[in-house]
Design goal:
about 270 residues, alpha+beta
Length: about 270
């Protein structure tokens, strides 16, 4: 596949409020200290939509805004790919409780937040973007599916594509069936061509390979980060971010399908 040029990164997770902080932790220059994510208020959203936005939406949009900050790109012209293994389980729990537990009509806000492409809708409203947006889910392979979708789009157009991968824990009842470790969102701004050396953080070449053991984080990092990686589908990106923070080089194996992995060569 044609290499993808990474020109922007955003990250929001416990103890990792942004890419600059995360890069210092992932390269061992700073110890990891888990901390609650501060309140997120997407400034680009109009007040009504800001009130309706769920934590999952706020998380994803915060990462997306970081990845696009400082780039000479008009968000109105950006295609986007949003990927999550579960999206917002809290909303699904609320919807089911209202229908089957309380026997009351579902509120319009809960209903429109329950669809898988709700976050993409908020992004388009925030920036007046009418470009194509794809919302995916592929269980623990959701990150890999998102990268492949971006590669397919960039093979057809030179317009940069924003990839956002996010997941967050659900209520206790659903968490007992599908545990997700902490809220996590990562955004990658990808381009088919380098847009200046100062903006090109890495190149990513993708290949599908037979399933094997996905890459773990380096042993010298805090074990809590490995727990986050294995416990949140979006956090599978952490070994890839380690390579990027270190300046590129090497390969990272990401889980995709039962018999296939995605091999990412970082340059």
């Amino acid at each position: 596949m044609t290499p993808l040029h990474l020109i922007g990164v955003g990250l929001v997770a416990p103890g990792l409020p942004d890419w600059e902080s995360a890069a210092a932790v992932l390269t061992g220059r700073r110890p990891y200290a888990a901390a609650p994510i501060p309140p997120l208020a997407p400034a680009a959203l109009p007040p009504n939509e800001r009130r309706r936005a769920t934590l999952g939406t706020r998380l994803a949009l915060a990462a997306a805004e970081q990845a696009s900050a400082g780039l000479a790109l008009d968000p109105r012209n950006l295609s986007s790919v949003f990927t999550a293994s579960e999206s917002d389980l809290g909303i699904i729990d609320r919807l089911c409780t209202d229908i089957f537990g309380r026997h009351i009509p579902v509120s319009p806000t809960v209903f429109h937040n329950s669809v898988h492409n709700a976050v993409a809708g908020y992004w388009s409203i925030a920036h007046g973007c009418r470009q194509a947006s794809t919302s995916l889910s592929a269980w623990d392979g959701s990150l890999a599916a998102g990268l492949l979708e971006c590669a397919a789009q960039l093979a057809d157009t030179e317009r940069p594509v924003l990839l956002v991968a996010y997941d967050l824990p659900g209520p206790a009842l659903l968490d007992s069936h599908r545990h997700l470790e902490g809220p996590f969102a990562c955004a990658l701004m990808l381009s088919a061509a380098a847009r200046g050396a100062a903006q090109s953080l890495a190149t990513l070449a993708l290949d599908l390979v037979s399933a094997g053991e996905p890459d773990r984080l380096p042993p010298g990092l805090d074990p809590a980060l490995e727990v986050l990686r294995t416990g949140n589908a979006a956090a599978r990106v952490l070994p890839l971010l380690c390579r990027i923070a270190a300046g590129g080089g090497g390969t990272v194996r990401l889980p995709y399908l039962e018999d296939l992995d995605l091999l990412v060569r970082v340059g």
